[in-house]
Backbone:
């Protein structure tokens, strides 16, 4: 079998304690997500899913002649670019991570990429940064994502509204890169389909009172209120204020609004509301669900599947390149993610490692039917759902 090369001491940390020979070295992978902030109810499951993939690789005993993958968590906050940059810098300079699974929200992801990943040559695979602007950002071949962009989601949302016969909407969006980019893309898609935007207005996260924002949107009119925000912060606040004032009773929810926490807080009061979230169906999704359930991870939480896939791709790219290095990840992600090759589902990472070790090719299907279609861009499908009796009910996949 081909002798796989180990990375240099500059990028791999040798353990300071005695370890079994088969686990003589560690390769650290950063897991940077908003463990505090507006999506903090989602990130524990996202991190758990990513770490599930890394554990699967380690447990196989087939990774790079005994290199152990070690996840190192850091808090992106989702919204504070300076804090996210500092956290990513620590991951690289102090912890010595080779690659980053993350970040999560689009604004902090862009900041980490520009200020930390690019200068240090460290690749990133985000499971949830969906801003269309990240499709064309300067990345030197270091940025990838497993979730499709908001450009595609906007088209799906416009299609859903058309199917429901809704032709006039008001839009509120969180005032950051994600929200503004999403609102612009949705406006273009909805108007192109013949719809009317009565008003598209931002809201700030963390406020206690959103009555003024809701009042302006209500005055503009619209059949429903489209909410492109975060379920743990301003998006939820806007909905609560709209319900309290009677301004709107039906809401269209972007991906950042999908969470169990939203239903826990608002329950049946948002029955009839509907939305979209990146999702998948098929053998890969089923396999992931079984793995996650066995590990105590809520597979139905948003971006869990994408997080598992992002971490798996990092490991498989290193295996394809024959070394645990940043360069190996960046150079081989697209090769292991796409055809040709044997299709690989969740739970089959050990099998994938064997194929790669023998010089074969794999086509990683993963939990989300992975297909990376260019720099910083992924194909994908969306779950179109409705809230009924205080629960999410799938209408279809698009």
Residues:
């Amino acid at each position: 079998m081909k002798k796989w090369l180990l990375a240099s001491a500059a990028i791999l940390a040798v353990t300071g304690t005695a370890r079994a020979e088969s686990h003589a070295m560690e390769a650290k992978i950063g897991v940077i997500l908003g463990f505090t902030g507006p999506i903090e109810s989602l990130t524990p499951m996202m991190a758990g899913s990513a770490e599930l993939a890394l554990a699967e690789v380690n447990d196989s005993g087939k990774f790079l002649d005994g290199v152990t993958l070690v996840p190192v968590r850091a808090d992106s906050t989702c919204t504070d670019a300076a804090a996210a940059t500092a956290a990513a810098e620590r991951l690289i300079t102090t912890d010595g991570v080779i690659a980053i699974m993350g970040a999560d929200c689009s604004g902090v992801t862009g900041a980490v990429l520009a200020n930390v990943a690019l200068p240090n040559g460290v690749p990133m695979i985000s499971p949830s940064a969906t801003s269309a602007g990240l499709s064309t950002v300067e990345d030197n071949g270091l940025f990838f994502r497993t979730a499709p962009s908001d450009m595609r989601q906007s088209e799906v949302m416009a299609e859903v509204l058309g199917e429901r016969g809704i032709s006039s909407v008001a839009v509120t969006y969180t005032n950051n890169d994600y929200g503004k980019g999403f609102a612009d893309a949705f406006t273009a898609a909805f108007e192109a389909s013949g719809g009317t935007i009565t008003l598209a207005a931002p809201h700030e996260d963390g406020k206690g009172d959103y009555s003024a924002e809701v009042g302006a949107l209500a005055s503009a009119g619209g059949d429903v209120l489209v909410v492109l925000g975060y379920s743990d912060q301003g998006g939820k606040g806007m909905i609560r204020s709209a319900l309290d004032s009677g301004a709107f009773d039906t809401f269209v929810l972007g991906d950042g609004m999908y969470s169990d926490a939203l239903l826990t807080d608002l329950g049946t009061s948002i029955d009839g509301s509907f939305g979209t979230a990146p999702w998948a169906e098929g053998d890969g999704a089923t396999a992931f669900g079984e793995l996650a359930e066995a590990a105590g991870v809520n597979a139905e939480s948003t971006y869990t599947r994408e997080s598992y896939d992002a971490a798996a791709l990092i490991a498989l790219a290193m295996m394809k390149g024959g070394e645990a290095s940043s360069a190996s990840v960046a150079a081989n992600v697209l090769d292991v993610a796409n055809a040709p090759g044997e299709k690989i589902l969740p739970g089959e990472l050990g099998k994938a490692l064997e194929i790669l070790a023998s010089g074969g090719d794999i086509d990683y299907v993963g939990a989300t039917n992975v297909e990376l279609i260019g720099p910083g861009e992924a194909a994908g499908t969306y779950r179109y759902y409705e809230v009924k009796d205080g629960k999410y009910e799938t209408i279809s996949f698009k």
About this structure: The chain is about 40% helix and 20% strand. The longest strand covers residues 25-33. Residues 1-24 have pLDDT under 50 and may be disordered. The chain has two domains: 21-149+282-378, 150-278+381-397.
